[in-house]
Amino acid sequence: PHSILAHQIPHGKRERRRRELRERGVLPRREQRLRERLQREPLKPPRPRGTEPGRLDPLRDFYDIWADDNPLERPLAGQDAWFLEQTKKQRVKRPERLRKKPSEAPAVEVIAAGGSYNPAFEDHQVLLLRAHEEELRKQKAEEKLEKQLSLPTGTEAPTPEMRFREECEGLLEESDAEGEETEQPEQPEQRAPPPAPPKEKKTEQQRRREKEARAQAARRSREKAARCRRQELFRLRSIRLQVTRWEAELLRRRQARQAKRRVLDARPRRLGRLKYQDPSLEVQLSDELAESLRVLKPEGSVLRDRFKSLQRRNLIEPRERARFKRKYRLKYVEKRAFREVT
């Protein structure tokens, strides 16, 4: 070759220096730390092929972050609680409301026996009766509201005299009351009663007699109390029976309160502005029942049923579709071209 650079190796002097140090056992700092780490840590079993490392790794250890033996808290064991709280290293206390369900109602309610695709005659009639009563209740509520909002007609319409009497209803009572107050005659002033005569000073004999009477009254009361206590000894059986009845009554009341509380816990609470309303019954008439599953038509909506279930279990508040509200009122403008045509 014409050039001497063709025989030179790139970074030859540096590579020769590295090779000499490696032969003497001197390794780079990075490689030396890596070897120390491999010697210190135990070898893990080989990961099977076809699995991704990370949270999808089947060999990864699982633990509960709320448990007492959480491995994340082992390095913090024995340290000052105030220091851990200030450095945001202490575990946040889990609220008590997350430990219990917001409602005891089941997530999926089993439909009545009459709602089956091939129900018995009695069960289907019971379901039809429930649906009929619900429709009657809705109809009565609508009729009541319509009756309250409707204007009276014919003979029931208010006359001008009735309107005037209604407007003057409170004024006439006030004027009559004022007239009664003015007509009352003036009563003469009541004089104060004369002062009581001063009591005479008691003698020594009177004081001694009063003292003896008080002592006798106290002695009689003590004797009566002792006599009552002696009589109570003979009433131990009846007292025990009264205590047993009282404890049974307390137990009955406690069980009644618990049963009432369970019923209230199963009911939907009012979480927002709207009140929860039960969905309408999904029922088919007798002539609409399918003869087989092939011709069965689905009733209701699974999405609506799950949405109502979340509301019934107090997981979300009852909601309604947002109504369109115009921000600015409409303005009608007569354009120039329209004015020229007209």
UniProtKB/TrEMBL annotation:
Subcellular location: Nucleus, Nucleolus; Nucleus, Nucleoplasm
InterPro entries hit by this protein: Nop53/GLTSCR2
Protein's UniProt keywords contain Transport: no
GO CC terms: nucleolus; nucleoplasm
Keywords: Nucleus, Ribosome biogenesis
Positions of region (Disordered): 1-58, 139-224
Claim: Plastid is one of the keywords in the record: no
Pfam families assigned: Nop53
Bias-annotated ranges (Basic and acidic residues): 18-58, 198-214
Single GO term (MF): 5S rRNA binding
Single GO biological process annotation from the record: ribosomal large subunit assembly
Family: Belongs to the NOP53 family.
UniProt protein name: Ribosome biogenesis protein NOP53
Biased composition (Acidic residues): 169-186
